Amino acid sequence: MFETIQGEGAFTGVPAIFIRLQGCPVGCPWCDTKHTWTLDPEQQVSANQVLAKEEASEAWFDTDVQEMVELIQRQGYRARHVVITGGEPAMYDLVALTRELLDKGLTVQIETSGTFEIKVDARTWVTLSPKVDMKGGYQILDQALARADEIKHPVAMDKHIEELDSLLARSATNHNALVYLQPISQQQRATELAVRTCIERNWRLSLQTHKYIGIE
Ligand SMILES: C[S@@+](CC[C@H](N)C(=O)[O-])C[C@H]1O[C@@H](n2cnc3c(N)ncnc32)[C@H](O)[C@@H]1O
Ligand SMILES: Nc1nc2[nH]cc(C(=O)O)c2c(=O)[nH]1
Ligand code: SF4
Ligand SMILES: [Mg+2]
């Protein structure tokens, strides 16, 4: 858990408390947070040790809603926006946590891949970065496409644009969702593809702005 500026998508530039939930089985080859994939029992540490981390590692702690809210209060964060990400946060039931944070007057956003049913309070902003190679079929992904407030698609090749086209064409998809292309790993060719396609399609561009300025 840490405080920074939201670097991506519709809330870019907004100071935010990030909660990074550990564990993800999806395995995107270009994932920039591979240290979140594991839930190694040997890497379990205390809340204080995680909060004191100065760089990314596989260390994690176990918690519950009440402790999480207390920790946020204790940290004295000034941000009024919470981003729940991971790893894959939708592996967890987040209804109680999101409700508690929203009831305290914070705004809440989840970053998810659409590979697990999304369990959040209805007021939560859902940023979907759909991962299309679904082994379990389209049922879960369609739920996510219907719930998404923002669809933020990482792109590096033409096939990624084609994937997004087919997702947007699904009848389940929320056609009011904001659509963003996000170049993979700041690659120049990916950025050029994203810029060109955003202009052609009237989609939006999401740069991982935190990476350009070297913040978390
Ligand atoms: C690390 S993921 C965690 C949340 C969730 N598992 C997901 O994929 O949405 C957070 C965001 O970073 C994006 N992302 C991960 N690696 C990236 C990379 N190398 N370049 C651009 N975006 C990336 C994901 O697509 C997602 O939008
Ligand atoms: N600053 C900042 N903004 C972000 N937006 C989404 C992120 C993520 O890893 O989910 C992220 C992140 O890791 N850092
Ligand atoms: S789903 Fe998200 S956290 Fe998991 S591997 Fe893909 S980008 Fe990384
Ligand atoms: Mg990130």
TrEMBL record:
Binds 1 S-adenosyl-L-methionine per subunit. It comes from the Bacteria. Pathway: Purine metabolism; 7-cyano-7-deazaguanine biosynthesis. Substrate binds at residues 5-7, 20, 85. GO terms for biological process: tRNA queuosine(34) biosynthetic process. S-adenosyl-L-methionine binds at residues 30-32, 87, 129-131. Pfam families: Radical_SAM (PF04055). Residues 11-216 form the Radical SAM core domain. It is an enzyme of class 4 (lyase). [4Fe-4S] cluster binds at residues 24, 28, 31. GO terms for molecular function: 4 iron, 4 sulfur cluster binding; carbon-nitrogen lyase activity; magnesium ion binding; S-adenosyl-L-methionine binding. The keyword 4Fe-4S applies. It catalyses: 6-carboxy-5,6,7,8-tetrahydropterin + H(+) = 7-carboxy-7-carbaguanine + NH4(+). Its EC number is 4.3.99.3. Keywords: 4Fe-4S, Iron, Iron-sulfur, Lyase, Magnesium, Metal-binding, Queuosine biosynthesis, S-adenosyl-L-methionine. Its cofactor is Mg(2+); S-adenosyl-L-methionine; [4Fe-4S] cluster. Mg(2+) binds at residue 33. Homodimer. PANTHER family: 7-CARBOXY-7-DEAZAGUANINE SYNTHASE. Belongs to the radical SAM superfamily. 7-carboxy-7-deazaguanine synthase family. Catalyzes the complex heterocyclic radical-mediated conversion of 6-carboxy-5,6,7,8-tetrahydropterin (CPH4) to 7-carboxy-7-deazaguanine (CDG), a step common to the biosynthetic pathways of all 7-deazapurine-containing compounds. This is 7-carboxy-7-deazaguanine synthase. It comes from Bowmanella dokdonensis.
